[in-house]
Amino acid sequence: MMGLGSAIGAGLFLGSGAGIQAAGPAVLISYLLAGTLVIIVMWALGEMAAANPSSGAFSTYADKALGRTAGATIGWLWWLQLVVVIAAEAVGAAGLLATIWPSLPVWLLALLFMVLFTVINLFGVRNYGEFEFWFAIFKVVAILAFLAIGAALIFGWLPDVASPGLGVIFGGDGFAPNGIAGIGAGLLVVIFAFGGTEIVAVAAAETENPGASVAKAIRTVVWRILVFYFGSVLVIALTVPWDSPALASPFAAVLSEAKIPGADTAITLVAAIALLSALNANLYGASRMIFSLSERDEAPHALQRLSQRQVPIRAVFASVAFGFVATVLELVFPERVLPVLLNIVGSTCLVVWGMVLLSQLVLRRRADREGTELPFRMRGFPAVTFIGLALLTIILVLGFFSPATGIQLLSTLVLIAGIAAAAKINARRRTAKSPTAP
């Protein structure tokens, strides 16, 4: 449920329309390609997490496979992405609710959300997980209801509502109105929407039986996310023209076609809850990542302090502090702070997934060479891992053909270089203090 909580957010309820506008109905190809990559990455991550559960997850695995600088760089990069996204989700949820109840100040709602979810994350992983479970259940029920209504609309089962048939998806400008370039642009939108699934591996360290629970979570999260995403986008593509302005809120557009009263309000509430669920999951992930970095001497040791509930309390506060500052700045200077920050960290998931695949390639070969038994093994290794790396390379190349995405990728690369330089300086500091340190 934590994987669903992080991955099923605004990227599905609001962002899926952007993918359809970029690629037309051919965005379904984008989802199939991105879904294949997600499956491969999750298999690779599950193999490593089951064998070595750690709150640092892919950062720890990169450390073991590619060296300490690589591990520290990917850990700090992911943490920065999450703390920026936390602020964006608080402001976004507040803005959505303010459209329903205009008397509620956006600044007050955003700060209340930040405080509320900080408190929830201080209660311990069991209570946090229970809260996230119900959040995710709400989203799943909403999506299932949407899929049922969409199917009824498509097959003409709704009274006094004509079925759109196949004219929307195959008529007009055709299946792929913007050609290969559109599919590539849609692919990038889809990839960013799938970001967050990797939080499953972070949570593995706090489960009772990581070997079994991680393998089960990987299998179920992957197919559920693909069904929910692909199913929802298929319904939207079949019922709403790809160039319709209504795709700004794609779920509401479908419900309006089905003549469901109160569709806009219902979807706005669902989207707000989806954002808050993702905020909750991302605060958890950020706090555990910086806690792991502290344990490995890649962040201040003070962040290792645990509460009586075994919660890294200072790591939680450190993670939420950036979010508070970014939230306040965004509210004071609307549309000037968060867009810049999000542009810098927007491509982080591609880098994280690339590190996951490279780390799994190294660690799996090492385990096979040493005869180490693994609780969960990726099938088709190493061919499947290489397929994942090839897909990732194609996506990166396509990204540079779009000016907006190209700038985003370059910004992320500059950020990575800065973090890597800082990690290298930190490593030299450790060596100077202790000549025998690794």
Briefly note the structural class of the backbone: mainly alpha
**Contiguous helical run count:** 19
N-to-C CA distance: 38 Å
Overall mean pLDDT: 84
If you compute it from the alpha carbons, what radius of gyration comes out, rounded to the nearest whole angstrom? 22 Å
Shape: globular
Instruction: Report low-confidence residues grouped into runs of 5 or more.
Output: none
Query: Helix fraction?
Result: over 70%
Number of strands: 0
Biggest pleated sheet = none
Beta-strand percentage?
A: under 5%
Helices and strands, in order, run as HHHHHHHHHHHHHHHHHHH
Folded structure, characterized:
The chain is mainly alpha-helical and about 450 residues long. It contains 19 helices and no strands. Helix 6 (about 70-100) packs antiparallel against helix 14, helix 6 (about 70-100) packs across helix 19 and helix 13 (about 250-255) packs antiparallel against helix 14. The two termini are about 40 Å apart. The model has no long low-confidence stretch (mean pLDDT about 85).
